[in-house]
Structures are given as structure tokens and as C-alpha cells.
Specification:
Order of helices and strands: HHHHHEHEHEHEHEEEHEHEHH
Number of strands: 9
Helix content: 40-55%
Structural class: alpha/beta
Shape: globular
Largest sheet: 7 strands, mixed
Number of helices: 13
Strand content: 15-25%
Radius of gyration: 18 Å
């Protein structure tokens, strides 16, 4: 199976993206539960019918581009295929030397964000990204290959992985999180997300509180065919600094307040490009017990 996956990595996006749009619509039409969930979540956020239709195809494109992103050889640079908007925001945060927490929602090509950071900044300040290993062994191997690159290290969602992130921030390095996914039971709190309570991770706020890290928002925008032709790029990474007042809320003692602040940040990024968000993800589900069952007691836990 992994051979098939890696063989697809040589296919151009001009082929993968149309195929992905088709897959997105097949999933939408063949799964009533997915269709209801995507439509309900998108309507709740204020998306109209046309935007919801675009979001169906974009979700499929996200899946179809994974072989190209994950199978890219480690010595093959992204180069001009990725353009940055306001990279000086990241530069400034790194110069402060207090560690950098990067928050990225499941919007656009979120997989490209860490790779783009590693290529541009990782030689001097590497990034550690948290991820959930796939249950299928072959896919877990692909994830390991894809997410461990020069300047980039993947950390599994375990207690050891969280400790690894804490140590990285204390060294002044960078950590990346996707805070709009449902955490395991006991690792979050209920907070509004597009006007509806969603179980939200408290890990992002704990990392800021325990290390004093700066916070930057990164969003990877997937470009369409005409945009790629005009700009000579496949993706754009947008950077934005979180203001001091919001960082203070994240570092505060009120977990519910900090989780709500994280959700507001994610809502802002999502609505900058709402048709590329994964509205079909079951964001409002009840949490369940997983490997990562309790938070670390202190940042110095061995």
C-alpha cells in the first residue's frame, strides 16, 4: 500500500486536485452522516450554498495532495512552490528567544505549514510538531517519513511527546499544534466554537503558561490552477502574530477562558478562507480516552 501511496507523490497537483474534488463529492454523496455534518457545520458558521459546494471539493483536494506532500524527498526543496506572507512576523518572534508556539487550524493545506517553516527557519530554530499516529502500520510509517525532515521533528500525542514539546520551547525552539481537533477526555474543556460548545484542548494555553512562549498563527492556503499560473506557486503561508493581550489570556489560570481565546483565533483564520476548512470533521463530538490520558505535572518532568 505504501508503494502505491509514494507512486502518487510524483503526480502533479494539476491531476491530483481534480481527482481530489471528485473524491470529495463521492464521499459527500455516498455518506449521509458526513453530508449532514458538513452542511450543518458550514451553515452554522454562516456559509452559503455556493461556499458549501466549494468546501466539498476542497476537502477532497486536501486528501489527494497528501501523497505529494508526504512523499516529497527530504532533499527536494519546496522553493518557489510556497510563498510567504509576512514572514517577518515569525522572524521577530524567534528573535525574542523565548520559544515560539505555532497554531494552525485544519484549513487549506495545513500539512505544508510545518514543512515550509522547517525549510525557511528550521536550520537555526527547528520545529517540533504534535501528531496522532495512524492506526494502520503502513500509514504510520509514511507519517514518520513525512514529518521528520531537516529542521522538523514529529512528536506523537503521548505524555512523552508533550514533555518533548515543553523541552523544545524551553530551549527557545518552535512547537506546532492543530488546536481545533477534539482532544482526549481530560485534556480539554468546553468552549464556544462558531457559537456552539466544542471540547477544546487546553494544551496550547498550558504550553504558553509554562514556558512564556510567543504565539504565531500560520495558515496554508491552497491555490487554484489559475492562481498557480499567475503566482508561480502552489501554496501561500500566511503569518500573523497573536497580540500581547491574547497571549496574557492564554497564559492565565482560567482554562475555559484560554480555550475560548484559542477558538476565537482559529475562527478568525478559518473565516479568512472558509471554503478550505474541513467542515466535515466531527468537531462537536464527545471526547474519548486515548493514549494521552493526563497532562504533565510540570515542565521539568523527566
Amino acid at each position: 500500500m505504501s508503494r502505491v501511496f509514494f507512486s502518487l507523490s510524483a503526480w502533479p497537483l494539476a491531476v491530483l486536485h481534480p481527482l481530489g474534488s471528485l473524491l470529495g463529492w463521492l464521499a459527500y454523496l455516498l455518506s449521509p452522516s458526513y453530508r449532514r455534518r458538513l452542511s450543518a457545520h458550514a451553515r452554522q458558521a454562516g456559509l452559503g450554498w455556493r461556499q458549501r459546494c466549494v468546501a466539498v471539493g476542497q476537502a477532497g483536494q486536501m486528501v489527494a495532495e497528501l501523497p505529494r506532500l508526504w512523499g516529497r524527498p527530504r532533499d527536494e526543496p519546496l522553493g518557489s512552490r510556497v510563498q510567504w506572507r509576512q514572514p517577518e512576523v515569525v522572524d521577530q518572534a524567534l528573535r525574542e528567544g523565548r520559544g515560539l508556539l505555532v497554531l494552525t487550524p485544519h484549513v487549506g493545506c495545513f500539512e505544508i505549514v510545518a514543512q515550509a517553516y522547517a525549510e525557511r527557519f528550521g536550520a537555526s530554530v527547528p520545529i517540533t510538531v504534535l501528531y496522532r499516529p495512524a492506526r494502520q502500520p503502513w500509514l504510520a510509517d509514511v507519517q514518520t517519513y513525512a514529518r521528520n525532515r531537516p529542521g522538523m521533528q514529529a512528536s506523537p500525542a503521548t505524555l512523552a511527546g508533550v514533555r518533548q514539546m515543553l523541552r523544545a520551547l524551553k530551549r527557545g525552539e518552535t512547537v506546532g499544534l492543530l488546536p481545533d481537533q477534539v482532544p482526549a477526555d481530560g485534556l480539554g474543556t468546553w468552549a464556544p466554537f462558531f457559537g456552539r460548545p466544542a471540547y477544546t484542548m487546553t494544551m496550547a494555553a498550558r504550553l504558553v503558561a509554562q514556558t512564556g512562549a510567543a504565539v504565531v498563527l500560520l495558515r496554508g492556503e491552497r491555490l487554484g490552477w489559475l492562481q498557480r499560473r499567475r503566482l508561480g506557486a502552489d501554496y501561500i503561508v500566511h503569518a500573523r502574530r497573536v497580540d500581547a493581550a491574547t497571549e496574557a489570556v492564554l497564559a492565565g489560570p482560567d482554562g475555559a477562558q484560554s480555550a475560548a481565546a484559542v477558538n476565537r483565533l482559529m475562527e478568525t483564520l478559518i473565516m479568512e478562507c472558509p471554503t478550505q476548512y474541513l467542515w466535515g470533521y466531527n468537531r462537536y463530538k464527545q471526547p474519548r480516552a486515548e493514549i494521552l490520558s493526563s497532562p504533565p505535572k510540570t515542565p521539568d518532568t523527566p
